[in-house]
Amino acid sequence: MKIENINFLKKHLQNLAESEPELKTKIEKISEILSQTKIEDLTNRKSKVHLSASAVVFKNAKCYFIKHPYLKTILLPAGHVENVEMPIDTAIREFVEETGFFAKIDENMQNFGLIDVNVIEIPENPVKSEGEHIHIDFRYKLVLDEVKEQKEAELEWFLLSENETNHEFKRYYKYLKK
């Protein structure tokens, strides 16, 4: 991640706090973590803080989810932000890799579709030689790019309605109407 991009991320978070005031306290805490972390560490798999990004993509009234191979839980398609990426690029790339479907920025959304950001505690993973760490996870509402042909998915994916998902994801369904 280039040095100038950290300022973009902070502005990105500030825009989210302005559009979603109920997230302001959480965003302030996340901004503080970002300020205390070296930029190069955010994409370093050995550091204690990693950037990640998730894709919130709907088909009809259901959202795409995957079964995480290590955590063994149902999550949004997501992954680590790589050195040359911004989180929005990661969300798009990971959605394609994990579901086989293509997604793109939702032109109807402000702030590139950023709808949430979370701190996620990740346990140690000896298989990947990763110690326990946290992810600052940027979550983007994207739309299916149905022009492109589906690829083979890396993971098992599901379409879940609002009443089929857990509490963490329920508030994202309000974006179905946007």
Helical stretch count?
4
Largest sheet: 8 strands, mixed
The helix fraction, in percent, is 25-40%
Order of helices and strands: HHEEEEHEEEEH
What portion of residues belong to β-strands? Answer: 25-35%
Q: Which class of secondary structure composition applies to the elements?
A: alpha+beta
Specify Rg, calculated over alpha carbons: 16 Å
Mean pLDDT: 91
Number of strands: 8
- Dominant shape: globular
In terms of per-residue confidence, which ranges show pLDDT below 50 for 5 or more consecutive residues?
Answer: none
User: Termini distance?
Assistant: 30 Å
InterPro entries: NUDIX_hydrolase-like_dom_sf, NUDIX_hydrolase_CS, NUDIX_hydrolase_dom
Pfam family, one: NUDIX
Organism: Leptotrichia hongkongensis
Domain Nudix hydrolase: 48-178
What are the defining features of this structure?
alpha+beta; 8-stranded mixed sheet; 8 strands
Structure notes:
The protein starts with a helix and ends in an 8-residue tail after the last helix. A hairpin with a 2-residue loop joins strand 1 and strand 2 (62-67). It contains four helices and eight strands; from the N terminus they run ααββββαββββα. The model has no long low-confidence stretch (mean pLDDT 91). With 178 residues, it is an alpha+beta fold. Strands 1, 2, 3, 4, 5, 6, 7 and 8 form an eight-stranded mixed β-sheet that branches.
